[in-house]
Amino acid sequence: MSGARRYQWRGDRVERMRQWLERWVDESPGRVAWHTPMGPIRYQALGDAVSRMGARFGEAGIGPGQVIALDVDEVVEAALLMLSAMLHDIAVFPLDPRLPGESRERLVRQAGVEWLAESCVGIFSGICALTPTYLPRGEGLLRQSSAERGGARIGDLRLLIATSGSSGDPKAVMLDEGNLAAAAAASAERIPLREDDRWYCCLPLFHIGGLAILLRALRAGCGVVLDRRFEAGRALDAMARHGATHVSLVPTMLYRLVASGRRAPATLRVALVGGAALEERLFARALALGWPLHVSYGMSECGSQVATWTPGDGGWSPGCAGRPVPGCRVESLEGDGAAGGRIRIAGAMVMRGYANPARRGGDGLDGEGGFVSEDLGRLDAEGRLRVVGRAGRFLNRGGEKRSLAEIRERMGRHPEIQELEVAAVSDPEWGEVAVCLYRGEVDEAALARWARRNIPQPWRPRRFVRIAAMPLLASGKVDYGALRRLAESS
Fold it and tell me: Per residue in 117-136, pLDDT tens?
């Protein structure tokens, strides 16, 4: 795939994200764009800050077509730096501060990053101290010119974002302006936003789920409530205080909100849940407490949302991700499992490719520009996507394959289990056996007896391990590598 590929969304012209901000500065300068721990930031102030930041980029020698990595932990600073770079035609790569140093360096080298921004202070007072420097130990790689890099580069690259790394090392995904505009437009058609809406953002901005909220809100001209971290009581208080209408959550966050026993804020219209499988019992408990659930399936490679179940789509059951968002073509490829094949996605929101130092498009895409996920799924008779597991997350027991997702679903029927995951570990007799790791009141011996009575042999774990906390990544997703290590050491 060449770097000359163009993207469209309802017309021949790619939407310019810069025009979104300009519109609201002109039409509604006093409307609050961001509700932050330091107070409200209105569209006029946001526009002024973005302009000042653009001037700072220019003074530092950072220009269109370059990539700046962000090692910034403070949420408002990070949000402003990211938005300012993208609106000035500079690609931005937000880094997870929790990643080990060697992983971070591998990612920035993979992306061919030229600049690193470590801090920015006084961003709304007019005193902006951006400190960009060449990355250490560059050895010339980061100083290469476009000609030296060779090949047709992506001309409108705006974002590099790391995948969650839940099943391995994270990869850097390249998204251009057309990808991001198409993703925001598709989301708005499935989940409409009004100008007086407020989206509570407690997902990290260095993952696509958090950053997508900023862009959806900017396109709609509504507000975002930026929070530094997630904590159930804090989140409930903040949503109530700001009158939040929308929130994005991973299932672990929803579990903790539900466990608090407090009802959903009365103003909330959409609780978008994605990032991992949602259990049926948690779904039912959340509905009983008034949470307006919308269950979503998405990924960094597609700008976030791919499919979303809404209450108007009929009954929900585990694995149901709803209909694909407009402009997103989803199909199930045959041959990877009886319940469903690998999920293939095509459309304007699909990435330009995985990052490489030359920033050429196409890595990780098929010959037609589509992306084939590691997830397995199928489309039902109503056109809804049903996700049944990961291609690599199978138990191979005595030569017979079983989906770990299906084993997990069956074990989740025990009434005293709060959270659980299932891992496959090596076994000298069977090749592999399933280990159930869980949080709950029931002890291992009692759970094993229940499993013998209620779960057929092919789906029954051989070992049960009660743990204090589920290993999670910064995004809130389960860290399957750490989970497997726990299972192997049990």
Answer: 876 555 554 434 455 543 44
Average pLDDT over the chain, rounded to whole? 84
CA distance 210 to 389: 24
Q: Domain 393-489 - what CATH class? A: alpha beta
DSSP string of 132-171, one letter each residue: EEPPTT-TTGGG--HHHH-S---TTEEEEEE---TTSS--
Pick the CATH number of 24-388 from 3.40.50.11690, 3.40.50.1100, 3.40.50.12780, 3.40.50.970: 3.40.50.12780
- Could you tell me if 286 and 293 are in contact, meaning their C-beta atoms sit under 8 angstroms apart? yes
Cα separation, 410 vs 430, in Å, equals 21
pLDDT digits (tens, 9 = 90+) for 3-13: 323 323 333 34
pTM above 0.70, yes or no: yes
Residue of 313, 310, 315 whose CA lies nearest to 292: 310
pLDDT of residue 456: 78
The string over 106-135, giving b where at least 16 C-beta atoms fall within 10 Å of a residue's C-beta and e elsewhere, is bbbbbbbbbbbbeebeebbeeebebebeeb
* Beta-carbon count within 10 A of 412 CB: 19
Separation CA 126–CA 458 (nearest Å): 65
